[in-house]
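>> received
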Amino acid sequence: MIITQPVPGEYPAYYENYFPLLDKNKPVLEQMHEDGEKCAKIIAALPQQKWHYAYAEGKWTCLQVLQHIIDTERIFTYRALCIARGEKQSLPGFNENTYAATVEMKHKTAGLVSLEWTSVRQASLAFYMGLTDAEAKRVGHANNSSMSVNAIAYITVGHARHHFNVLAQRYFT
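>> returned
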């Protein structure tokens, strides 16, 4: 199964900034697999004193950023599933700030967050690997915008990379 690179019109323009984060010479599903393992190691190695650290007032904590990455991957893959299966209704958007503000994080450990990340990423990977070419090319609507299943796969990888880059630059230093 090869997920093809999306073209403009298959996704909202505000996702454009994620595509340069992907390697154009490597299949997106290979990158999805590699990132799953690499990011799980990063999460597991994060010192506990950094978990509730935010680099500035009003910014999310490290743990909130990690949970945002996980939650968003779940939502993106759900959208891809619906579109691949022929859903005709526009799928709802979500407010990332509301999600971050309402999730309870005090009980989460590095091991649990690493497990949650790995499980979500593996589920996403298995889903995309199981698609036919026709399913991967389907276009539907999410958050009042047209999106292809192919585009969602690329956006999913780029979104996680974007946030792990932010963590590396502003939280892990």
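>> The mean pLDDT is 93.
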